[in-house]
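User: Can you predict the 3D structure of Succinyldiaminopimelate transaminase? Sequence below.
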Amino acid sequence: MNPLLDQLQPYPFEKLKKLFADVTPAAGLKPISLGIGEPKHPTPELIKKALTDNLAGLATYPSTLGTEALRKAIAGWLERRYDLPKIDAATQVLPVNGSREALFSLTQTVVDASRPGALVMCPNPFYQIYEGSAFLAGALPYFVNSDPARNFAPDFSLVPEDVWARVQLLFVCSPGNPTGAVLSLDDWKELFDLSDRYGFVIASDECYSEIYFKDEAPLGGMEAAHKLGRSDYRRLISFSSLSKRSNVPGMRSGFVAGDAAILKKFLLYRTYHGAALNPAVQAASVAAWNDETHVQENRAKYIAKFAQVTPLLQQVMDVALPDASFYLWARIDQSSGLSDVEYARRLYAEYNVTVLPGSYLARDAHGVNPGAGRIRMALVAEVEECLEAAHRIVEFTQKLKA
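Assistant: Sure. Here are the predicted structure tokens for Succinyldiaminopimelate transaminase:
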């Protein structure tokens, strides 16, 4: 067996299942989970219709490159969303089976494990695929802790030069999971300058880009590159997905876009990997990328939900409206003396509400686990259920203080 598999850590939800294994939650309370970031709003009818109207495509092998119609729909969306010049749908866009699969496989494409000490850098806390993909590519992950004083942006100035010299791939997540923070244009300029100096590829995970709470939409990596005079998107690959934007996580449909030279190699890898997108899913994806009405309606639901839930939780914990995404990243009241893990376990036991301990989403790095003392809450259910969960959390936390 591949010995690199032994380096993989249990996924956060496996840890949560183990944490709750011997717990019987309070009887009489309906279970409410804020633990998993799985969209619960209804799938738009136009997407379901496009899917079922194109089932004849199941009789053919799909191309890894995807249909021209899908690549043009994605390119058009990028141009409209980020005010970009014309995207070459033949060379700068590639459909993928959701962002998770592509984040993992791009790492296998980019990393040259024959170079001693290969590193894949990522923020901390982070999406665990970043770490796992690094290990299985024969590299090591290097974590840069998010700093609450910097709106949870990592401080890359703290990274030693000898570390930068070994970095081959840098993962960024904007809007961030779990923090919801969005990188600024100055942040992007710093990253591009570092990429130019050291030659690493930037993988920009942007799957939460369409759930935001301010008038201005979050800045994307390709948008920042264009504004900074880098319209060839050199050493930049952006990832997006329909899962959160369009409430279709089960379709496993997304895309990568950016540097055409990297995408040419990525297409070669994927052709051997067998990662072509289902033809009916491709047709439904065209309908989704070409429509913004359902996205605006979806975003309005999240805005209304966060406006009601956030003030309730602010009564008992340090939590603020994020820049974007559907998570609340909260610091629990330290006076209780509970760790984030103990807090999550007792909340489940006594109030049948599931939240994810922040330390499960981070690693001990540079002397600290930046997720410790925090919890992540995914406000993915309808507003009534999220409000009920918030009221229970408030009651539980107030009881701890009594």
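The chain has two domains: 3-42+294-401, 53-290. The longest strand covers residues 140-147.
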